[in-house]
Design goal:
7-stranded mixed sheet; 4-stranded antiparallel sheet; about 0% helix; 11 strands; mainly beta; globular
Length: about 110
């Protein structure tokens, strides 16, 4: 069983920055792809960014150049650095552990205009 604990969400003005963190329990973290997804009210959950065990990354077109995903295998933690935030980035952000398909509880990010 893997547990994911997210932190770092909050309220920020447009143009501001936030860094999300997701700490994972278990010993397989370094071998799995980790991702960040988000879900806005009335919309489907969507992939924001993903990082493989080899640190290869992919990003949604809407966040390319603004968001950066990274991981620290020594700390079993994945990060999402979000810069130049826009009101349309407002959503609940979820951490995802691909091996076993585990999800975090979600953290709210609200960007005011």
């Amino acid at each position: 069983q893997v547990q994911l604990v997210e932190s770092g969400g909050g309220l920020v003005q447009a143009g501001g920055s936030l860094r999300l963190s997701c700490a994972a329990s278990g010993s397989i973290f370094s071998r799995t792809t980790m991702g960040w997804f988000r879900q806005a009210p009335g919309k489907q959950r969507e992939l924001v960014a993903q990082i493989t065990s080899f640190a290869n990354t992919i990003y949604a077109d809407s966040v390319k150049g603004r968001f950066t995903i990274s991981r620290d295998n020594a700390k079993n933690t994945v990060y999402l650095q979000m810069n130049s935030l826009k009101p349309e980035d407002t959503a609940v952000y979820y951490c995802h552990h691909q091996m076993g398909n585990y999800w975090g509880q979600g953290t709210q990010v609200t960007v005011s205009s």
